[in-house]
Specification:
This protein is an alpha+beta fold. It has 4 helices and 6 strands. A two-stranded parallel ribbon has the order 1-4. A two-stranded antiparallel ribbon has the order 2-3. It has a two-stranded antiparallel sheet with strand order 5-6. The longest helix has 14 residues, at about 50-60. It is globular and about 50 Å long.
Length: about 130
């Protein structure tokens, strides 16, 4: 949740430059959406349909407009060695992994942002950039 303001900003700011943000999560079957309080609540054995509906409401509440993918088998998490959240994987236009960062510290956020700008070929006046 701490990263959401940055995701919203980057999605708005760089979408027209080619940035595609995809949030990936796994089915947990452990959370439902409390419509009255507009929040997550722990629940037991939530159906896949109800969890997808919960995620849609969660994204709406947090004003997330990027794609959210849900996987059943954790294949992506295993592939990218996700050990903690949030984790960001920046992949360039050729499919090459350019950055993997875990956490939401200001330093991590700045490194992600500067790498995004470099990959998108954006010169912010702080130096030359290259379009990867």
């Amino acid at each position: 949740i701490q990263t959401f303001p940055h995701l919203r900003q980057w999605n708005t700011q760089y979408e027209d430059k080619g940035l595609v943000i995809i949030g990936v999560t796994n089915f947990t079957k452990a959370f439902a959406w409390d419509t009255e309080n507009k929040s997550l609540v722990q629940s037991q054995s939530v159906s896949q349909d109800d969890e997808e509906a919960m995620l849609a409401q969660f994204a709406k509440k947090h004003e997330l407009s990027h794609t959210i993918a849900v996987e059943a088998n954790s294949a992506l998490a295993k592939h990218y060695a996700v050990a903690s959240i949030p984790q960001v994987v920046l992949i360039d236009r050729q499919g090459k992994i350019r950055l993997v960062k875990v956490g939401a510290s200001p330093e991590t956020t700045e490194e992600i942002h500067s790498t995004l700008k470099r990959l998108l070929g954006i010169d912010d006046g702080a130096g030359e950039t290259e379009s990867d």
